[in-house]
Amino acid sequence: MSMENRPLGSFINRRDFVKSGAVAGLGLAAGHRALAHQPSMESVRVGFVGVGGMGTGHIRNLVRIEGAAVTAICDIREEHAKRAASMVQEAGQPAPRLYTRGQRDFERLCAEEDLDLVYTATPWRWHVPVCVAAMKNGKHAATEVPAAVTLEECWQLVETSESTGRHCVMMENCCYDRAELMILNMVRKGLLGDLLHAECGYLHDLRDIKFSDEGEGLWRLAHSVTRNGDLYPTHGLGPVAQCMNVNRGNQFARLVSMSSPSRGLNLFAEKKFGPESPEARKRYALGDVVTTLIQTVGGQTIVVKHDTDSPRPYSRDINVQGTRGLVRKYPEEKIHIEGRSPEHQWEPLSNYHSDFEHPLWKAMQEQSRGAGHGGMDYIEDYRLIQCLRRGTPLDMDVYDAAALSAVSPLSERSIASRNQPVHFPDFTRGGWKKRPPLGIVTA
Questions:
Q1: Coil, strand, or helix at residue 313?
Q2: pLDDT tens across 252-265, in order?
Q3: In terms of CB atoms within 10 Å, which of 67, 125, 220, 375 comes out highest?
Q4: SS3 at position 186
């Protein structure tokens, strides 16, 4: 039976059945040990693949972080690679070697360079090939979001990381924003009680970007043409998953997804290019609003929304609810805690800064000021380099990269099956039951 014709619920056990003997014994245990404990290093030699918009931002961060050395840069556009190299040299580091011989020149970088980490901010289709090439050549891998597009790609990252003993981390910057860090600190201190429910999403009007002839416009629209699902779940779901200890004592169990009609891109194209233009007459698979309901093994529910084709203000719609109260971020930061807040009323979240500000944000807010997305991009890069230098576990790992990225293909399957429930694969193969939750880390 082909993968496309398998019953949807079968995906959770496919790899467990094939690998139950070898992996459940030596392979799984060795993989977890290798990923958790790495030797410390004085400096982290970084090769960067893809230095367009986000890549340039990460280069700007890395050259400011003590112990990070950007020694190689790869991009299909030579002018982008040279621009990034100039930033490295202006920061007082030696000129990095450049790899600009086409789409797969990252393979030469991974094979030839003496590196500790390969970091990629390429279009989505290249995330897995770059990470796999890095790990197979003995380098740790870091990728922009999402880490993978298909379930097969998710498994490929997990299995390569386990077999090589190299880290593969998805760089989810929203886990390091001020409010999200503060909410995690509140959860860890028990302020919200036992967690019951959360809401989150990615609600961002990307119509101009999708029809642009540069940057993300060169590739992002293609996903909207052929795919209907939550194509970008990790910005909202990453912080929520950390609060709910996903892959660390808890796990995503199943999801159901639904999609609204697709109207926004056609209407926008009519105005921008004319009603008879190819852009206006094209059929776009992606529904304007995709809503996904996830249930965890612990019973908590999570609503995840994806809306990138509608006229709307930006939001990640963060809302975390427990037995003692709830806190939300958009459209404004507010909180209600039973016995502490006025009855039946919200309070500004700022009332809680003095007691619950996350120590990482408190320590890093000045150092990260002026960096991308309000400073959270710098903090995520700082933590990556800090953990690698210390040889300590990363804040997110390959199992988080796989579980969060898997929401996209699973939501596509649910929508295509007329909204049937779909089970999550267990990428940890039972390891989630014993892994400790992410603590409150510091700088």
A1: coil
A2: 999 999 999 999 99
A3: 375
A4: helix
